[in-house]
Structure formats: structure tokens, C-alpha cells
Amino acid sequence: MALSSDDELASLLSALCSAEPQVRTAAEQALAAGQLQPGFAGRLIVYAVAGHTTPECLPMQQMCLTVLRRLTSPETWVKLSMDDHVILRQKLLGALADQTGGIRRLAHACVANISASGGPWPELLSQLIAAISAGTEHEATCCVGCAVVLFEECSA
Questions:
Q1: pLDDT value at 141 more than 90
Q2: Which of 42, 73, 130, 138 is the most buried (most CB within 10 A)?
Q3: How confident is the model over 38-77, as pLDDT tens digits?
């Protein structure tokens, strides 16, 4: 599945959210065929955190992060390209305090998955500490929430 445009990605996401079983099944098959292609995970995170949260876009942004939650699981993370690793880590750090609770919680779950997958991520700890100690009340609260998710995943 080579999605060459944002419109094609939006169409796939819309189809994944469809109430029509045939449309959704075809989209799930297309996703399964292309989800590990280099650059796909990066495009999903860019779409998910692009800051265009509207009632129409929110389900598709949540779908992006739901797919990414699966792609960031330890068994799948190792199959993603290094470029995807870099952009996912970078963009997820920016989403730790997203204004939309559903986006933020899914981002926290992706962060926990990546942390469980191993490998150094010193920027994560730095971001959490900075937001908790010097960020706004919202940023501090959100980063404490992310830390709780991380601790829960470590103890599971």
C-alpha cells in the first residue's frame, strides 16, 4: 500500500472508521499490507498531531494513534524504520500535553510502548521533568499522567 498523498491517507483513515463492514475490512487489509513500509508510521504521527483537531478530524487522528499504539508494541517496533523511530519519538514528545484528552491518552500509550521496547530515549525523561517542574499546570498534570502510564506498563 503506497499512500502517495495526504488525501489517500485520509481516505484510508476514514475507511478504517467506517460503520460499513465491507469498507472497513478492505481498509484493514490495505493497512495490514502497508503498515510496516518505511515512512508510513511517520505519516500517521504527523497527521495525528498536526494540530487540526476538529470534530470531523478527531476520529481519524485517534485512529492514527490507535494504529500507532499497535505499531509501537515491542514486537512490531523493531520492524519499523529508524527514520520512523526518530519522527515518532519527536512528535510523541510534543503530544504529551495535547489539549484533547483522547489524543493525549493514546500518545501516552504509544510512549509507554516505545519505552518498553528498550533503547535509550533520554529526551523523554528530560521532557517529563521539565514539564513537571517548570511547565504550565496543564503540562505538568499531563506529564504526571504520562509518567503514571509508564509506571503501570513497567509493573505489568
A1: yes
A2: 42
A3: 999 999 999 998 866 678 888 889 999 999 999 999 999 9
Neighbour-count burial for 50-89, b at 16+ CB within 10 Å, e otherwise: eeebeeeeeebbbbbbbbbbebbbeebbeebeeebbebbb
Closest CA to 46 of 1, 3, 101: 3
CA 107 to chain centre: 5
Cell of 76: 512490531
Distances (CA, A) of 73 to 23, 25, 33, 126: 26, 22, 18, 23
Specify whether the CB–CB gap between 36 and 80 falls below 8 A.
yes
Dump the DSSP string for the chain.
Answer: ----SHHHHHHHHHHHT-S-HHHHHHHHHHHHHHTTSTTHHHHHHHHHTSS---TTTHHHHHHHHHHHHHHTSHHHHTTS-HHHHHHHHHHHHHTTT-SSHHHHHHHHHHHHHHHHT-S--HHHHHHHHHHHHHS-HHHHHHHHHHHHHHHHHHH-
User: What is the tens place of the pLDDT at every residue in 70-112?
Assistant: 999 999 999 999 999 999 999 999 899 998 899 999 999 999 9
